[in-house]
Each structure stands twice: as structure tokens, then as C-alpha cells.
């Protein structure tokens, strides 16, 4: 596992409910944050990242139960942890 996956999965039991999906979404989040403007606000990062991950979940899955679980349980946790991790990495 990558350091960011360790960081996220180690801090949230919700992500361990669907670890493969969580890793996939974490990878998407890292890719997206790498292309984000450095001067974007926290709210802008959160909104854009949530949109990107939500769109990806809708495209990937047809099962409404899985989509609900990912959108309302997993994605918010990933967004919060990814932003924490991203800003910690930028400070060091």
C-alpha cells in the first residue's frame, strides 16, 4: 500500500468496509489533487474532490446500494482525510 492509502485506511474504519473501492477512490483523489491549483481554498478543494469522486462512483457502479454506501459513507471520509493529508504533505 502507498503511504496515503495507509494514512486514510488507518484512520477510518468506514474505509475498511470496502477497502478495494477505497483504494481506487484514494488513487483518483491523489490524481485530482495533483492537478489542482495551489491557491484554491479548502472549500474549493472539498467541493471539486467530492464532485470528481461522486461522478466516478456513478460511472463505475450500477447497484444503488453500493453507490449509496460509497457516496454517503466512504466518499466524505476520503475527502476529509485526503485534504488533511494533502495539506500536511505541502507543509513539509
Q: Could you name the key traits of this structure?
A:
mainly alpha, 92 residues
What does this structure look like?
With 92 residues, this protein is mostly helical. Helix content is 79%, strand content 0%. The protein is built from 4 helices and no strands. It has helices at residues 3-11, 19-35, 42-60, 64-91. Helix 1 (3-11) crosses helix 4 (64-91). The two termini are 21 Å apart. The model has no long low-confidence stretch (mean pLDDT 90).
Compact summary:
Helices cover 79% and strands 0% of the residues.
Tell how many strands the DSSP assignment holds: 0
Look at the structure and give the mean pLDDT.
90
SSE sequence, one letter per element: HHHH
* Whole-angstrom Rg: 13 Å
Can you lay out the helices and strands and say which pair or pack?
Layout: H1 3-11, H2 19-35, H3 42-60, H4 64-91
Helix pairs in contact: 1-2, 1-4, 2-3, 2-4, 3-4
Amino acid at each position: 500500500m502507498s503511504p496515503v492509502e495507509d494514512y486514510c485506511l488507518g484512520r477510518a474504519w468506514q474505509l475498511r468496509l470496502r477497502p478495494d473501492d477505497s483504494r481506487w477512490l484514494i488513487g483518483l483523489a491523489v490524481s485530482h489533487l495533483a492537478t489542482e491549483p495551489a491557491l484554491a481554498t479548502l472549500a474549493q478543494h472539498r467541493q471539486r474532490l467530492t464532485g470528481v469522486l461522486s461522478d466516478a462512483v456513478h460511472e463505475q457502479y450500477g447497484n444503488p446500494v453500493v453507490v449509496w454506501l460509497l457516496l454517503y459513507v466512504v466518499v466524505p471520509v476520503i475527502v476529509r482525510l485526503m485534504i488533511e493529508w494533502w495539506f500536511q504533505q505541502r507543509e513539509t
